[in-house]
Amino acid sequence: MRVAGIEAMNVFAGTTYLNVEKLAEHRNLDTSRFKNLLMKEKTVALPYEDPVTFGVNAAKPLIDALSPEEKDRIELVISCTESSFDFGKSMSTYFHEILGLNRNCRLFELKNACYSGVAGFQMAINFILSQTSPGAKALVIATDVSRFMIEEGGDALTMEWSFAEPSGGAGAVAMLVSETPHIFQVDIGANGYYGYQVMDTCRPTSDGEAGDSDLSLLSYLDCCENAFYEYQKRVPEADYAKTFSYLAFHTPFGGMVKGAHRNLMRKAAKAKPKDIEADFENRVVPGLVYCQRIGNIMGATAMMSLASTIENGNFTAPQRIGCFSYGSGCCSEFFSGVVSEESQKAMKKFKIKEQFDKRYELTMEEYENLLVGSNAVKFGTRNVTLDSSFIPQSRKAMGKETLFLKGIKEFKREYEWVS
């Protein structure tokens, strides 16, 4: 029987963060409503951090762990993002060069809002299952950045960011996909996908988003329900309440996940409110732990939730995880796979939680200055040399060699390793 899945997986959540409760107070938001977000922290992208630095910093430990022969079997590199800085050139070319991969390799990029990471993952799974190149591996990097900006002399309080600002994060998840799924073995053919045209959120300009938050919530709920029902058609014995030991959701914010889970427990499992709350704590919360500390990282968030579930769940015996991905516009998918105790041990060696803990906490003054400073790398920047003294603590935060953006010269991005 052919198998495929995630051989190795790592997360990079940047070098700085903001306490979102402090941000909500600073912006005079309704804190009672804010608590429904179920958020704690958000990663903040500095001017010398971009989707490439996030992606490379997530992927490098995976590549470094491979032998030269194994590294040369990477024949597919997919970047999954809605934060690309070029309408034509794929960021996968930067990943490929910086990580020193074999030139006999397919390189391309996927965009489909927050669904892109799972779209890339499923494409890699099908490449492995096709056996067109037996023993080959695929590197999938989902990476996204929310970069809030104001003009010099502008006032952030006048911007229409509302609750998008506290929930918008930055980060990357890197996955090595192969026929030796040490981390996550997918259930082949167990996929329910569901999509249609809806203007819930979009990016009509390169550095700005627009949309209808209420419509987005309704679309998410609709897709979660119908993607699972389609999964159930293909796996008739599937029971939402009993088949999956854990559930990993795309997490724009925790409150949306809680609503989607409650909706399915009511309709698919006929569960009572008290039982729904207990089930949420047991099966869903492990997948929210990291999402609550990084914010919504768009195309990478569903796989971030999977990583969080694997690290924070109990896998003394193999367990099945149900996963839901949603991308505005929209497309969604419910799929599943099996995780073991060995999977958890393999994940823990990358010390993801320790990475989160090492980030530097920005003060509100530093953050406000950053909102102006981020204009240095706005979309279309042709030439810039970045100020490496900006938040100097961030460049030492990880305590290990970390990639940063050095500058842009005639549109080409130049990077440097800092230790």
Report on the structure:
By secondary structure, this protein is α+β, with helices and mostly antiparallel strands. It has helices at 20-26, 31-34, 51-64, 68-71, 92-98, 116-130, 164-167, 213-234, 254-269, 273-288, 291-294, 301-312, 341-348, 352-358, 364-373, and strands at residues 5-12, 16-19, 41-43, 74-80, 106-110, 137-145, 170-178, 184-195, 201-205, 208-211, 246-249, 319-327, 331-339, 360-361, 384-385, 402-409, 412-418. A hairpin with a 2-residue loop joins strand 16 and strand 17 (412-418). The longest helix is centred in the middle third of the chain and has 22 residues, at 213-234. The chain is globular, with a radius of gyration of 20 Å. The mean pLDDT is 94.
In short:
Helix content is 36%, strand content 26%. The protein is an alpha+beta fold.
Q: Classify the secondary structure makeup into a structural class.
A: alpha+beta
Strand order, largest beta sheet: 5-4-6-7-1-8-13-12-11
- Report how far the terminal alpha carbons are from each other: 45 Å
Please state the CA-atom Rg, rounded to the nearest Å.
Answer: 20 Å
Helix content: 25-40%
Largest sheet: 9 strands, mixed
Which assembly state applies to the chains in this document? single chain
What does the average pLDDT come to? 94
List the total number of helices: 15
- pLDDT < 50 runs, ≥5 residues: none
Number of strands: 17
Q: In percent, how much strand structure appears in the residues?
A: 25-35%
Shape: globular
InterPro entries: HMG_CoA_synt_C_dom, HMG_CoA_synth_N, Thiolase-like
Family: Belongs to the thiolase-like superfamily. HMG-CoA synthase family.
GO molecular function, one term: hydroxymethylglutaryl-CoA synthase activity
Domain Hydroxymethylglutaryl-coenzyme A synthase N-terminal: 4-178
